[in-house]
Each structure stands twice: as C-alpha cells, then as structure tokens.
Amino acid sequence: MVGDGHRIATYSWGELDDPVAVVVHGFASSTKDNWVATGWVRDLLRAGYRVIGLDQRGHGASDKPHEASDYSLSQLAGDVETVLDTYLVDEAFYVGYSLGARVGWEVVQDIAPRIPRAILGGVPDGIPLARLDIEQVRAYAEEGIPVTDPVTQNYVRLTERVPGNDLRALLAIARGLRETKTVDPDPAHAPQQPVLFATGSQDAIIPGSRALAAAAPQGRFLEIPDRHHFNAPGSRVFREQALAFLQEG
What we know:
This protein is an alpha/beta fold and 249 residues long. The chain is 39% helix and 14% strand. The protein has nine helices and seven strands, in the order ββααβαβαβαααβαβα. It has helices spanning 31-36, 40-46, 73-86, 99-110, 134-143, 150-161, 167-179, 206-215, 236-247; strands at residues 10-13, 20-24, 50-54, 92-97, 118-121, 195-200, 219-224. Strands 1-3-2-4-5-6-7 form a seven-stranded mixed sheet, sandwiched between helices. Strand 4, helix 4 and strand 5 form a beta-alpha-beta unit. Helix 3 (73-86) crosses helix 4 and helix 5 (134-143) runs antiparallel to helix 7 (167-179). The longest helix is centred in the N-terminal third of the chain and has 14 residues, at 73-86. It is globular and about 50 Å long.
C-alpha cells in the first residue's frame, strides 16, 4: 500500500545480500512485459544482482484508478520510494525505461544518497506522452471511434497487447502527467550521480535524450542501434551496455 491507499504490485528475485537493482517499466507496459520477457531480470540475476520490480499504478497487477489526480509525477516517484522502503532497501541501482525513466529522473534526485548509479532509457524531454492524442484515445475508449493518429495508434496497440491493461486508466495517466506543473526535466537540475542515458537510433525523442545526458555532470549516452521507442528494451546491446555500466559502480 502506498500513501494514498492504492495497492502496488511488487516483485523480488535474487539473494537478500546481493546489490539491488530496482526496475521501473514504461507507459502501457509492466514489469513482466518490460523486464522479464526481454531478458533483463535474467541477465541482472546472472550478474549477481537482487532485482526488485513494481507495476506502476495504472499498470499490470497494481490498482488502476481512473482519476487524473491519482497520477502526478510526484505520486509516481513516491511509489518507487515507498517500495524501496517497504523492502528495507537502503541503496539501489535504478533502471527505468520511458515513463519509468522520466519517473527515475525525479527518484534519483529525491533520494540521491540511496541511488549511486542509474540507467534512464528512452527518457523524453518535455511533457511525457505529449505525442499521445488524448481526445482520440478518449473517443476510442468510450465510443469505439477508430484512432487515426499514427503515434497514438502505436500506444493503443501496445496497451491492447499487454494483458490486463485498462485503457481508461492509461488515459488518466496521460491527463495526470499533463496537469503536473513540473513535468519537464530541468537540465539545470540534472542528477549528479553517474547516469547512463540510452535511446534508440530510430526514436524521435533521441535529440532530447542526448541533451539531458549532456546536462548531467556524470551523464553518458548510448544510442541503441536499429531500435525505436517501443522495441528498445529488447535490445541485447542495451542490456549488455547497461550491465557493464552498473558493474563500474
């Protein structure tokens, strides 16, 4: 249970004494879809890490409220921090993708002494989910009107591909993040610890991700070859480079 009474599904693998990696998935995904099915959990365990995952509110097996007010950026970041507290984890490496990376930008600064190193994959600058046509999603969810915007179609396909997704909850997430007044990552207040930023070479957000990496004093950028935003987590190059980066610490 988190502070406002919602239930957050969590997962733990590995030995209690191993260094911890907390993995936080992207929009319309889940721990299983983003990290288990793509081999991340397997490879982290083989490398000697204990892995803690969570389904962000509105996703997976977690509660899925339909009110935009339940999805501020601070609430999403607070959920991650509550999960670490619940598992009595004093220090963890942070691994996030897309929405999980945007949330991570906040987490690694909110509790900086507890996050010595982080990986932020596919992190957007500007308003999260800004390319999503909210009105088209609403019309599709409520009236069955087909979505015509290509980017929004991709999000809807992703939503419908992952079992258990609730389109109305995901619509509330998009609205909630747009109503958050501090959604833009501020390069003037970038994470101070080592951070690997990684974005697909075919992802439209790559210039913004590069700029955020350049703003971080210990930032590093990985261009994931031949990947777009929706298939980058499955890249073997991404996994290998991420593990190498974590092992530097």
